[in-house]
Amino acid sequence: MLEVDAVDLHYGAAQALRAISLQAEPGKVTCVLGRNGVGKTSLLRALVGQHPVSGGTIRWEGADITRLKPYERARRGIAYVPQGREIFPLLTVEENLETGFAPLKRDERRIPEDVFALFPVLGDMLRRRGGDLSGGQQQQLAIGRAMVMQPRLLLLDEPTEGIQPSIIKDIERAIRKLVSGGEMAILLVEQYYDFAKSLADHYVVLARGEVVSRGAGAAMDGDNVRAHLAV
Question: Would the pTM count as exceeding 0.85?
Fold first, then answer.
């Protein structure tokens, strides 16, 4: 389980996160919602170690990981799919997937068949360059690359951004499949309310770097949450 307790984060004198607390459980999807600029991506960067926190603790599977480096967190089974995908456009699909080998032991470095079962298009396009893929296919590639790391915690930053509806449905099915085994926890940052509502076991809403609402996904108050997503 991921346990975030009273985390603060600063960029210089500016405070981006204020006493953020949340949990993400294996077999469950926890959604973090909010407008642009409220600290959602900053939270994910703190969780993977890309930016140090200025207060609070982050625990994963019972261990304090607050001060660990990003590669140390990756080796503990934490994978991150960033906003904008950040695939390598000049590498092939296969080479992009193989970049997920980095935190694995040498004898574990293989692309799981589950990647192609979830996203068959990746198997069909292994020799194509990442930059030749559509936005939706690149998003599938980014998630597939994270899956290669064999994560137990998957952090997804707005995977529906700029994606056509048919691919959004594919990604929704993939997320459901990933948590169905009961071993992976997923923390999903999202602004698309319907997508979050369909997947959330638990939700947290951020505004100005603070948690302003939380609860069970089944009891999500549509009007209240939508008010925090509107521009």
Answer: yes
User: Quick check: helix, strand or coil at residue 156?
Assistant: strand
Q: How far apart are CA 90 and CA 45, in angstroms?
A: 25
45 phi/psi in degrees, rounded to 5: -65, -35
Residues 6+ apart with CB under 8 A from 161: 83, 84, 191
Among candidate residues 199, 211, 207, the one with its CA nearest the CA of residue 27: 199
Torsion of CA 17, 221, 83, 78, to 10 degrees: 70
In this structure, what are the phi and psi dihedrals at residue 30, rounded to the nearest 5 degrees?
A: -105, 125
Cα 19 to Cα 110: distance, rounded to the nearest angstrom: 39
Write the pLDDT tens digit of every residue in 164-182: 888 899 999 999 999 998 9
Radius of gyration of the chain (CA): 17
Q: How many angstroms separate the most distant Cα atoms in the chain?
A: 50
Give the Cα separation of 57 and 78 in Å (integer): 16
